[in-house]
Design goal:
single chain; alpha/beta; Rossmann fold; Alpha-Beta Plaits; 4 domains; 7-stranded parallel β-sheet; globular; disordered N terminus; hydrolase activity; Helicase_C-like; helicase; DNA 3'-5' helicase; 3'-5' DNA helicase activity
Length: about 700
């Protein structure tokens, strides 16, 4: 890839020795280095008649609504609408947007559904910024789309829910956490026309082998069954074979339903430089940025580091801003908008930045710290050069970087005693005495502090209890504390509102300076048998919507429904502890292995481009070795891969086999270097 050669792409021999010890439609998203859209089973089987319909409906829709007549020679969206296999990954978002629009066009043509019965396409994505950008772009073209996420106010959510119930939406975007909301899931089940397509973006989050495993994503496969989605498409830019296998297993997808594109990006130059001390990186990055102009992303590990490095760059005369997950939403949006509009050249960011960003002219991507995994690295360098112009990616590393990565990985496994204590707390005497079907609450924040368990592994533990052991199911969470600040009309409300809910709120609200607080559990006891907690929450939200007060909720309490008899004996808890501990330790080792893979690539002799390609899919490389048993000529093997004919190759008929030219999207020099290693290893083995 780019200019790096197999023998000189890593600079720093001494360091190497040390390491041995240790608008969606306006810019079609071609996305990073690898994309694996996958489509699952369908409720209907396509017919020949459907083929004719497909040929005309989807392309016509694409022209009329998006303004594009082509996105990729084999655009998958034309086939997804009829539940056929995925054919493309270029223009990832179009793979669900075009079908969502085409369904109504097709219904009108065949007369199979009446107006308002076209159904909906649901897109599950963890990227709030991406959801908003895509919805805005769709609305500009009069396409009925919206999203449900944590940034929406209560009134805004009600508008979306009403449009959903009335069958007025074509696409609905939501975060995976929304699937814990029972009301939302029930509403989706009864949407007019049903769910025509469920699209799962960033599908690698489903896999425990993925670099961004999110327990809530495991619930998406269950949702697909519960809402009876007609079609499912899973999309990701970073799917190793193991990840793809997990996704296929979760959604019951056949191997024929998997499509991969090549990870090779010829316009990217991948480079790395090693130093002994972290401080040495600063002069290097200053020099690099002076020599390499254009929009630049600099990735770091810690939030504080993003702020400090951005400040250091500004002190050197560079136009730089920081971006990290700890910033307020409006602050993050301001940085993103400035970067997109070329009002700021450099963004120093944690991994929170870049996902879903479609800026085509990013010229440089710098890794100031060690990437978490090869998947993360490939995804981040994939932000560069989307316009096809030459772009440079630089990786600075030092021994200290590896300590930090190991620190993160080791911190996610609690002590066995802590895990056992947590399980005893979850399944306490009061909870285990509840009958199946009843609900109990837990305060995760309190448990993280009491049992010294980080929030991420705590979420994994609860997900395992739900999805692996089938003991509980997460439902809509609630807040432990509500506060409100009266508006001018509130005092008149106190005199006129006589409902039981209002009386309970007025009697139990306790005033501090400006804000009132209310304990809802105590408040409902003032009207025994007549009120529920939900009644009071509904009334408070109603007053908030109508401007009588400003409402704030805090202290999330997670709620779980009991699915079967819970463990109650010490022996049962011990057994559960052992299984969960084994799982957490396995995840810890997987995280360490992912960091080691990055180290091996950056400090090794393999061409970066080929190394990444082999990480994501080594099948083609192995297929060439299987087709040709001889290990006497690495250039001969490289010719097969690249598609160069020779008398020997033709005589053996290899030019007629599928392996011929199967790796033409790689640099010949990289292929030659890899096959040279294979032949050398075979020679050594023969001598032994």
């Amino acid at each position: 890839m780019g200019k790096s050669r197999p023998d000189d792409h890593f600079d720093g021999d001494d360091l190497f020795d040390d390491f041995q010890d240790e608008d969606v439609f306006d810019n079609i998203d071609t996305d990073t280095l690898l994309s694996s859209p996958v489509i699952a089973r369908s409720q209907k089987r396509p017919t020949d008649e459907d083929d004719d319909q497909e040929k005309h409906a989807a392309p016509a829709t694409k022209r009329q609504k998006s303004g594009h007549t082509a996105a990729h020679p084999n655009l998958a969206s034309q086939r997804i609408a009829l539940a056929k296999k995925i054919l493309s990954s270029a223009g990832k978002s179009l793979c669900y947007q075009i079908p969502a629009i085409a369904f109504e066009e097709m219904d009108l043509q065949d007369g199979s559904r009446s107006a308002g019965e076209h159904g909906i396409a649901i897109v599950v994505s963890p990227l709030i910024a991406l959801m908003k950008d895509q919805v805005d772009a769709l609305k500009k073209r009069d396409i009925a789309a919206d999203c449900l996420d944590s940034s929406k106010s209560w009134p805004e959510q009600q508008v979306v829910n009403a449009a959903l119930r009335d069958g007025k939406l074509r696409l609905l975007y939501c975060a995976p956490e929304r699937l814990n909301n029972e009301g939302f899931v029930e509403m989706i089940k009864h949407v007019r026309g049903g769910v025509r397509l469920l699209a799962v973006d960033e599908a690698h989050c489903i896999s425990e082998w993925g670099h961004s495993f999110r327990p809530d994503y495991l619930k998406v496969a269950r949702l697909a069954v519960e809402i009876q989605a007609e079609r499912v498409v899973c999309l990701t830019a970073t799917a190793t074979p193991a990840v793809a296998q997990d996704v296929c297993k979760a959604f019951n997808i056949s191997p024929q339903g998997v499509f991969r594109t090549s990870p090779y990006r010829p316009n990217l130059s991948l480079n790395a430089k090693g130093v002994r001390e972290k401080m040495e990186k600063y002069d290097l990055i200053y020099s690099f940025l002076r020599k390499n102009p254009g929009p630049t992303l600099v990735y770091v590990t810690l939030q504080e580091q993003a702020v400090n490095l951005a400040g250091d760059l500004r002190s050197q005369g560079f136009d730089a801003k920081a971006f990290h997950a700890g910033m307020k939403a409006d602050e993050k949006k301001a940085v993103q908008d400035c970067f997109m509009a070329n009002k700021v050249r450099i963004v120093v960011a944690t991994i929170a930045f870049g996902m879903g960003i479609d800026k085509p002219d990013i010229r440089n991507v710098i890794h100031f710290d060690l990437a978490n995994s090869l998947e993360e690295y490939s995804q981040q360098v994939g932000r560069a050069g989307r316009d096809g112009k030459p772009s440079t990616c630089m990786f600075y590393l030092c021994p200290e970087d590896f300590y930090l990565r190991e620190n993160f990985a080791r911190g996610d496994v609690p002590a066995k005693e802590s895990l056992e204590g947590l399980l005893h707390d979850i399944f306490n005497a009061e909870v285990v005495d509840l009958p199946v079907g009843h609900v109990f609450t837990q305060e995760h924040y309190k448990q993280t502090n009491t049992f010294d368990i980080r929030s991420s592994p705590l979420g994994t533990i609860y997900a395992a209890l739900e999805l692996q052991f089938g003991l509980i199911r997460a439902i809509t969470p609630e807040y432990s504390e509500y506060k409100f600040k009266p508006r001018p009309s509130y005092h008149a409300l106190v005199k006129t509102e006589k409902s039981p809910e209002a009386k309970a709120i007025f009697q139990n609200a306790k005033k501090a300076k400006e804000w009132y607080s209310i304990n809802l559990t105590e408040a409902i006891t003032t009207q025994p048998g007549r009120l529920s907690r939900a009644d009071l929450v509904r009334k408070l939200n109603q007053w908030h919507e109508t401007g009588h007060l400003e409402l704030k909720a805090s202290g999330v309490r997670h709620k779980y429904r009991i699915l079967k008899e819970l463990p109650r004996t010490s022996a049962e808890i011990d057994n559960l502890t052992g299984q969960l501990m084994e799982d957490l330790e396995r995840r810890e080792q997987a995280a360490l292995d992912r960091s080691q893979q990055v180290q091996d690539l950056i400090t090794g002799n393999t061409c970066y481009a080929l190394g990444l390609a082999q990480h994501f899919d080594r099948k083609k490389f192995n297929a060439i070795l299987a087709a040709c048993c001889d290990r006497d000529d690495p250039r001969f093997l490289a010719r097969i891969a690249f598609g160069i004919k020779s008398p020997r190759l033709t005589k053996q008929g290899l030019d007629k086999q599928a392996v011929f030219r199967s790796m033409a999207d790689h640099q010949f020099s990289c292929l030659l270097a890899e096959f040279t290693k294979v032949c050398h290893a075979a020679k050594v083995k023969r001598k032994a």
